[in-house]
Amino acid sequence: MIDNRETIKISIDTLGSETSIANIIKGLNTSFLRNDNYFFRLFGPKEKLNYELKKFSTLKENVEIIDCNEFVEMTDKPSEVMKTKKNSSMFKSIISILETDSKAVLSCGNTGALMAISLLNLKTLDTIKRPAIASIWPNVIGESIVLDLGANIKSDSQFLIDNAILGTSLATTLLKIKTPSVGLLNVGKEDSKGNEVLQKASHELSALDAKGLINYYGFVEGSDISNGLTNVVITDGFTGNIALKTAEGTARMIQVFLKNSLKSSLVSKLGAFLASFALSSLKDKLDPRVHNCGIFVGLNAPVIKCHGASDHIGITYAADLLYMLLNDNVNDKIKQNISKQVNS
Amino acid sequence: MIDNRETIKISIDTLGSETSIANIIKGLNTSFLRNDNYFFRLFGPKEKLNYELKKFSTLKENVEIIDCNEFVEMTDKPSEVMKTKKNSSMFKSIISILETDSKAVLSCGNTGALMAISLLNLKTLDTIKRPAIASIWPNVIGESIVLDLGANIKSDSQFLIDNAILGTSLATTLLKIKTPSVGLLNVGKEDSKGNEVLQKASHELSALDAKGLINYYGFVEGSDISNGLTNVVITDGFTGNIALKTAEGTARMIQVFLKNSLKSSLVSKLGAFLASFALSSLKDKLDPRVHNCGIFVGLNAPVIKCHGASDHIGITYAADLLYMLLNDNVNDKIKQNISKQVNS
Questions:
Q1: Cβ of B238 and A195 within 8 Å?
Q2: Cβ-based neighbours of A44, under 8 Å, separated by 6 or more
């Protein structure tokens, strides 16, 4: 059988985070075994990368190493990185989108720097003014896409509308939902709630809904994110960031309470032991290695920022997501959605 | 022994929510047994109130009933209630602060209406421009005060500073912390994070800290609320409301996951049975009947809004909180803190 599928190539920034190169390679290998037309352009120390690749002979034939030892520190200021870190693994991996056939970037490094370098070099798609950071959130009945989680802290109604288009395209690709419902995060569901920016955005989204361009639900509240009321939840980057971190903090707190409770007596310790399989499945559902993956969307190439302390599972998850985004041509979908809106 | 303590009188709005009068009376009785110089002025249907009071003979001698059948609906608009519902149990209970020796109000009714009626009639304390809604949040190491949770959706730096003063006074009274630390909610801890309003507020809070008037920590993130990094977390009412509801939704989602996981096999069911005592203590820690209690602070009299579906436990908790606030003269503390700030 002839394999007609095109190779999907992405660039990996392997430096600048707590995640070890061993974990990055192990994670990429797992994704490669599932997505065998994948190819990785690895930016990092050649010797170390080659050493780790020895363990994975098939993967080794499907990577290119660009030797690179300089990297962006977690404490580097985005504005300075642009001038001083042009030889860093992060900068070079982004630039490779312009200079090679790499179609996306994966990094575990400094989020602010990654966004700044990406925005400056990859530029935004068509009418999109600013990219957003999106993530897949677990909810009671499945998963939803939430954006923006921190790219734009200023609230602006056009930006919220852009988020609706970007979020819809992501949900179609990543959640396989044909016409995903979109909720606009507010302090209540009634039409009268919220400030002028939200009122204006809601009005315009309703108009797009009437034209069949967006499946707009209306306002949703913080609790609706985990209820799964809508497939997509849109908000500004300030509110989204607070919501994300509050949810993460709450989940961590409950896990601490649960652990302490279950250790409180011998009987409950035994109970916890018997229920350990069930409890570990709960832990998987809330795994921050998976859910802390930020998708930069609205750029001319998708960029994924893995959690800075990801292990191989987080890397595999991120690489799988990028594969889905590229295999399903998410940016073409976004462009189509934008052009429908512009021409409506 | 002569009891020199003054009777502490509060007004209770017993209508306009899902909470039954039976639960309200039962809840008040539990608080009364702990705080025996408490006196309740009950606004609601006389016959029904008397019927429920029959069960609690000592309490019965420490209440006054103001017969009232009209009430504010959950769907009533705050602006209209002011004109059309002057004979409602809610309106009358607030007015009783001006006309009787009641010092505070407890209601389970419509939050927006309760805030509007309270603001118009009770007015704000000294230099405080707008009251805030505060709540006690559980965290990994104890509890913290978070405000504003929805009174003011506009962000304004003076309002954030007022929240710091109000939150400090509440933490001193309710958490018994002498100089509570105050964190300003932002998307990161670095000084450069956030918008102009946050920058300005942080700058002014640092100045108040330098004068020893506030124990200002600096910026905190969403995850720090449940970390317990600071005793008080201040934010605008839009962000606070989103954070609160996101946290509640996350806690509910995890409880659903946990319940489903523990039912997934016979062994885990047995484990859950053995650990049931420990698991119910976890449930208590996250009890929304307790944590959904909103304290309206910054008014000339404290008002507490219980959750609309509170049972007797929620009512007891709210009545206990009001007792602490009045017994400790929280409003005098707030006034002292304001005057120190004004004269600094």
A1: yes
A2: A12, A13, A14, A15, A21, A65, A66, A67, A68, A69, A89
Examine the domain organization and report whether A286 and A317 are in the same domain.
no
CA distance B122 to chain A (A): 24
Examine residue B341 and state whether it is found in any structural domain, yes or no. Answer: no
Question: What ipTM is given for this predicted complex?
Answer: 0.89
Nearest CA to CA, how far is A147 from chain B (Å)? 14
| Residues B274 and B326 placed together within one structural domain of the fold | no
Instruction: Chain B: give the shortest CA distance to residue A277, in Å.
Output: 7
Chain A residues with CB-CB distance to B257 below 8 A? 282, 285-286
Same domain, B50 and B77: yes
User: In terms of domains, do A167 and A87 share one?
Assistant: no
Residue A95 belongs to a domain = yes
- Whole-model pTM: value is 0.91
Residues A279 and A306 reside in one and the same domain = no
- A336 inside domain: no
Torsion of CA A60, A65, A70, A72, to 10 degrees: -70
- Domain extent at residue B94: 1-128+298-336
Give the CATH number, domain containing residue A324: 3.40.718.10
Q: Per-residue pLDDT tens for B182-214? A: 999 999 998 889 999 999 999 999 999 999 999
Alpha helical stretches, state H, A110-156: 111-122
Q: Are residues A11 and A83 in the same domain?
A: yes
- Six token digits for residue B252: 């509910």
Q: Do A250 and B252 touch (CB under 8 A)?
A: no
Q: In this model, does residue B323 exceed pLDDT 70? A: yes
pLDDT bin (cut points 50, 70, 90) of residue A79 is confident
- The DSSP output letter for B299 is B
How many domains are contained in chain A? Answer: 2
Rounded distance between C-alpha atoms, residue A133 and residue A147, angstroms: 6
User: Cβ–Cβ of A246/B225 closer than 8 Å?
Assistant: yes
Residue of B nearest to A271 (CA): B271
Verify that B15 and B100 share a domain, yes or no: yes
CA distance A248 to chain B (A): 6
- Give the strand pairing for B38-44 and B8-13: parallel
**What's the confidence (pLDDT) of residue B160?**
97
Whether residues A222 and B252 touch (CB distance < 8 A) is answered with: no
Express each pLDDT in A213-268 by its tens digit: 999 999 999 999 999 999 999 999 999 999 999 998 888 888 888 888 777 777 77
Decide if B222 and A285 are in contact by the 8 Å CB cutoff: no
